[in-house]
Amino acid sequence: MFVVKPLMQDADLRAFLSPAAANEYAETGVFQDCGCEQSEIHFVDGDVTAAEAVAAVKDGRSEKRTVVHRKMSADEIEVSRLDALAERELGL
To answer: At the top level of its lineage, which domain of life is listed (predicted)?
Structure first.
């Protein structure tokens, strides 16, 4: 079972059967659900339910696989690029 843990306090953890589903949620769904831009994906081995997997992550009984940053939209990328350019030009 793969569990997505947003890197902010009091955020809900969600369990997934596949790493692809967990990664997709970590890249897009976490930000939409709670505004967090980074998440950890944990792996819980064995025949466990989603609730048991989430509890294992909360208790530190899981294997952290990766940290995922959310995907930015094309508009967000352009704004970020323009902000960086303005900072360079204005010496901010």
So the answer is: Bacteria
